[in-house]
């Protein structure tokens, strides 16, 4: 695989927004990019496919919400259904990563960087996607 094709896209799928992050070509570092405001499934998927092409990603990692006791919730089912829809239209593999504590970690990191998470929801969503993606990349090392 050529170096420019080693990027991985990370997604934190919510009801209002999809947080987005992308890895560097080495697969070591993640960077949050602007969140996608949810409209409808077709437009949401098209936005993701557009980013996949723009960043030349080789895989997509989606945060899967699992409760602290390890059980699925209604949101888990919603995200799994979203992933099934994404798999139908995507030419790259899709992986799931446990997203427990990703939002809290993202908020902590943003506060340390001088941001106000309560006022910058899209930034929190994408920072959370970066936390999820980084956990996935670290597990692959």
Folded structure, characterized:
By secondary structure, this protein is of the alpha/beta class. It is 43% helix and 25% strand. A 5-stranded mixed β-sheet has the order 3-2-1-4-5, sandwiched between helices. Strand 2 and strand 3 (30-37) form a beta hairpin. Helix 3 (102-112) crosses helix 4. The longest helix is centred in the C-terminal third of the chain and has 20 residues, at 121-140.
Lay out the secondary structure.
Blueprint: E1 7-13, E2 17-23, E3 30-37, H1 41-54, E4 57-64, H2 74-89, E5 94-98, H3 102-112, H4 121-140
Parallel strand pairs: 1-4, 4-5
Antiparallel strand pairs: 1-2, 2-3
Strand order of the largest sheet: 3-2-1-4-5
Mean pLDDT: 87
Which series of helices and strands comes N to C? EEEHEHEHH
Helix content: 40-55%
**Which structural class matches the secondary elements?**
alpha/beta
In total, how many beta strands? 5
For the CA atoms, what is the radius of gyration?
A: 14 Å
User: Quick one: overall form?
Assistant: globular
> How much of the sequence is in beta strands?
15-25%
Largest sheet: 5 strands, mixed
Q: Which residues sit in consecutive blocks of at least 5 with pLDDT less than 50?
A: 1-5
How far is the N terminus from the C terminus?
17 Å
Distinct helical segment count: 4
List keywords for this structure.
141 residues, alpha/beta, five-stranded mixed beta sheet, 4 helices, 5 strands, 43% helix, globular, disordered N terminus
Short description:
With 141 residues, the protein is an alpha/beta fold.
């Amino acid at each position: 695989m050529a170096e420019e094709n080693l990027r991985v896209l990370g997604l934190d799928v919510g009801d209002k927004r999809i947080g987005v992050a992308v890895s560097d070509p080495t697969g070591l570092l993640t960077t949050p990019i602007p969140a996608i405001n949810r409209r409808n499934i077709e437009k949401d998927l098209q936005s993701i496919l557009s980013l996949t092409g723009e960043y030349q990603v080789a895989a997509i990692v989606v945060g899967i919400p699992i409760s602290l006791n390890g059980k699925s919730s209604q949101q888990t089912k919603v995200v799994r259904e979203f992933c099934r829809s994404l798999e139908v239209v995507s030419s790259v593999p899709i992986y799931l990563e446990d997203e427990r504590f990703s939002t809290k970690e993202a908020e902590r990191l943003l506060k340390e960087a001088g941001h106000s998470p309560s006022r910058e929801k899209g930034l929190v969503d994408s920072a959370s996607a970066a936390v999820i993606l980084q956990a996935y990349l670290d597990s692959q090392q």
